[in-house]
Amino acid sequence: MSYIRIPRGWEIPEKDVTDESVYLDRRNFLKAMGYSGIGLAALLSGCNDFLPFDRSEKPKTKIGNYTTANPNLYPAARNDAYTVRRALTQEETAATYNNFYEFSTSKDDVWELVDRFETRPWEVEISGYVKRKGVYDMDRLERLFPLEERIYRFRCVEAWAMTVPWTGFPFKTLIDYVEPSSSAKYVKMVTFLKPEEAPRQKRKRLPWPYVEGLSIDEAYNELAMLVTGIYGHPLPKQHGAPIRLIVPWKYGYKSIKSIVKIEFVKERPRNFWNIMVPSEYDFTANVNPRVPHPRWSQATERIIGSWKRLKTRPFNGYGEYVAHLYK
Ligand SMILES: Nc1nc2c(c(=O)[nH]1)N[C@H]1C(S)=C(S)[C@@H](COP(=O)(O)O)O[C@H]1N2
Ligand SMILES: [Mo]
């Protein structure tokens, strides 16, 4: 296998780093699909059918792309115990810079590609070692537990970061409600599988559907949230409507979007990115400035929008809440 030389982060002028991460992502993705270096070079040199699909259907809106049966639940009261000393990211910046591989391998066009993704009606199946197994309709799940707003930092493994207000409920609230038995050691979460609505899922060489997992202790940590909204309204589709995970001390790929199944299991599940590239994406994925990704440093991060570079913090700044889990 021949490799294209990737310039290191510090060799690239700051304004180009975004492009680099898109490029790395794409390369990674292709590598995982088993292309040789040569085939890869051909694909990267502007081969148009690499683009997801025809964009003649123009998107309706950047941020108003959501539905709910419970509009009265938004905005939810902010929980001031969880705020950070960082500027909030602009709503439109966050809504137009997304990782959602079901739709695109780029970040800047996901919001344009989600129009035919249907997020209502929606069901979430809860299964495995729990008392209250069953299929929960999203309209009911949204009302089942009190919603609250929390401002969290968010850090992608590609070294971009943002700070946004999420609306949702603590994962632990759901765990207490469904009553897992002592056999439940991990929680496995699965994204929808609807290739007619998410065209990249037609590419069978990727291990669809997207899967993620947490240990039961991680899921029970007070920071772990099941999120149904952002910026005081329901989640726009590109952010993972109608319900997603947010675990702010871990790299963003753990925060699985558009969940259809939550399973309480005995064995540690394998997660999507770990299946794709096991040497680069582990299960735990805690933010750590001292452990570089094999192809780039994690010492700093760039804030989307301003593109200011800041120091990465251990556990993304949430060590006081979670460090004890890893002793
Ligand atoms: N189903 C699914 N969930 C996903 C992803 C994905 O491609 N598919 N990408 C992950 C990654 S890598 C990141 S950084 C975040 C991005 O969330 P955002 O677009 O709301 O910022 O979603 C995560 N959840
Ligand atoms: Mo990410």
Task: Please tell me about this protein's structure.
- The chain is an alpha+beta fold and 327 residues long.
- 19% of the residues lie in helices and 20% in strands.
- The chain has nine helices and twelve strands.
- It has helices spanning 17-32, 37-44, 91-95, 110-113, 138-144, 171-178, 216-220, 272-276, 319-322; strands at 123-128, 134-137, 148-155, 160-170, 186-191, 211-215, 225-230, 233-234, 244-246, 259-265, 300-303, 309-311.
- The strands form two sheets. Strands 3, 4, 7, 8, 9, 11 and 12 form a seven-stranded mixed β-sheet that branches. Strands 2-1-10-5-6 form a five-stranded mixed β-sheet.
- Mean pLDDT is 86; it is low at 1-55.
- Bound molecules: ligand MTE and molybdenum atom (MO).
Provide tags for this entry.
alpha+beta, seven-stranded mixed beta sheet, five-stranded mixed beta sheet, 12 strands, disordered N terminus, binds the ligand Nc1nc2c(c(=O)[nH]1)N[C@H]1C(S)=C(S)[C@@H](COP(=O)(O)O)O[C@H]1N2, binds molybdenum atom
